[in-house]
Amino acid sequence: MSIVIFGAGGLGREVLATLQLTGHNVIAFVVEPGYAAQPIRGVPVFDNIEPWLAREDVSFVIAVGDCKARARIASKLHTRHFPTLVHPAVAKGHHVEIGKGAIFLGPASMTTDVQIGEHALINPGCVISHDCKIGAFANLGPGVCLAGGVTVEEGADLGVGAVVAPRCTIGAGAIVGAGAVVIRDVDPGATVVGVPARPIVRRAASAAAS
After folding, report:
1. How far apart are CA 111 and CA 182, in angstroms?
2. Over the stretch 176-196, which tens digit does the pLDDT of each residue have?
3. 65 is in an annotated binding site
4. Which residues bind substrate (predicted)?
5. pLDDT at position 50, please?
6. Per-residue 3-state assignment (H helix, E strand, C coil) for the chain
7. Dihedral sign, Cα of residue 28, residue 34, residue 38, residue 40
8. Where does 85-192 sit in CATH, by number?
């Protein structure tokens, strides 16, 4: 089955390279209306998805880094087939479940009893230890390290090089800043930064509290 990549930025090029390494036939990129561009690595770029939706022989990969945008696009294409994409350089242990549309770029590793949700994005250099659960549409930036038993809920976004201690939960829609070290649970929708990671306190809220 031929593949169309939704998104033609840096992530789109990474996805193209991975698909080609794994022997897939990529026939087009699709971008938002008005953003058509020159071909990328010989693959044409279109700004109209409708002709591709009319074809039953096409699968889609959503190469969009923003969690919410990826979820929005997936909801529009929910009836279509989404292959699971795992780079050949990913070290994959036993009893690993990866949901449809998930993208796992390499090199990276996951050990045993790991669950990766639909349309999750795992970037190069990530280490996912035993018994971790990654929710749908979550992002793990390059070099993220998850110790054993970590849960990353739906749509959470972990920045470059973030580290999460054993059995911590990153709540749905939370943001963990680059280089942060999480040693306790992060509430849904919260933004945490630093070592150890602490919630960002907005100035207005801080002034009101004082």
Report:
1. 20
2. 999 999 999 999 999 999 999
3. yes
4. 65
5. 87
6. CEEEEECCCHHHHHHHHHHHHCCCCEEEEECCCCCCCCCECCECEECCCHHHHCCCCEEEEECCCCHHHHHHHHHHCCCCCCCCEECCCEEECCCEEECCCCEECCCEEECCCEEECCCCEECCCCEECCCCEECCCCEECCCCEECCCCEECCCCEECCCCEECCCCEECCCCEECCCCEECCCECCCCEEECCCCEECCCHHHHHHHC
7. negative
8. 2.160.10.10
- Residue 130 annotated among the catalytic residues of the structure: yes
Extents of the domains making up the chain: 2-76, 85-192
Q: Among the options 24, 87, 119, 130, which is catalytic?
A: 130
Name the CATH topology of 2-76.
Rossmann fold (3.40.50)
Q: What Rg, from alpha-carbon coordinates, does the chain have?
A: 18
